Amino acid sequence: MPRAAILTLGCKVNQYESAFLAETLTRLGCQLVAPTAAPDLVVVNTCTVTAAADRQTRQYIRRLARRRPETAVLVTGCYAQRAPEELAALPGVRGVLGNREKTRLREIFAELHQPAAPVIQVGSIAQAQSLEPMPITSFFGHTRAFVKIQDGCQNYCSYCIIPHVRGPCRSLPRAQIIDQLRQLTSRGYREIVLTGINLGKYGHDQPPGESLAGLVEELARAGLPGRYRLSSLEPQEVTPALLRQLAAWPQFCPHFHLPLQSGSAVMLNRMRRPYGPEEFRELVNQIRQYFPQAAVGVDVLVGFPGETEFDLAHTRNLIDALPISYLHVFPFSPRPGTPAALMPQTVTGTEMKRRAQGLRELGKQKKLAFYQQQVGQEFEVLIERCSSGPPERMTGLSANYLRLVMKDDGQGVNRLVRARLVQIVGDEAIALPS
To answer: CATH no. for residue 61?
Structure first.
């Protein structure tokens, strides 16, 4: 039985698609193992959103070729879609598949150990008109399951390569989504994350009137077990209609992740972001009106060409003034083929690191404040990990995205328990069963 491993880089959509690839390999007779467990084949599912992501992919493949030259490597994902020949030239690479060609793994599997030139199947994604289903029955290695219901993006922000490697917006029909959710909940998954490249655009390619709000209304009526979370949403797509439907869905986890990128109106305009700082401020406050205990996470991009200390101060002040729960901070990385790559880079690497570190410190402060506000509250917690200790502890996730630690009760993972957050000790939130 061949031994196969999957290395996943990047977003939740990639993680879902890796679960599909894992099931495909299993059906082909492979034994799934960790990438460190001497596999015969490694599938590298890549990200290309930053230069660092590209570099991480190349470093891993070269390191694997040195340590295990007999291992075949198949590269897929966004980096593969963008630069297939570049990846095919790396040592050990036997195949490169584009994002739409991920479903063809079965067809080329036998060729991956042939001595011929690497198999390259990367077609144009710009004209993709439908979302090809990638159904899964389990989510290998995860307690929570993800389900991809949308792909593609047409926002064309000036710094972003994703529309070029993911294609236009496409959505999975409601019936297929519900079938997928029933399959996973019947397998015992207690929480499912609905995800997409531009999730808020769900339904825009479907019959007139279809929307993410309409899908949420349908899911609330479907009577599915478990709880449900949404992945990242563009601020302009979190509409009052969507918030109303989410508030009416008892199984919705009150957790929103929003890419702000900058608190400066000048920078948002240069980035081609279709909202301003005040609109973002109003949205976050509106979310908290509907969901007083909601976690609101924010992406921030620092060092964009032309960003001044004045722009950075606007970003810090906006975040500081809002009930933000955590930050993801990314230094600007020029992507070939985007308008921002042609802009003069005005922020040095050293200065970019300084700015990013300052915002990360602010993020830690916001996260601590959010956790402290929740002390004394009771939550439904999904147990995800148990440590063998000592001390014996278990860790779980609340609906509003609190990572809670409590004494292990010996009942294992993948179950929902009631717990009360009692104190914050260092970086840990300590809870007791209630």
So the answer is: 3.40.50.12160
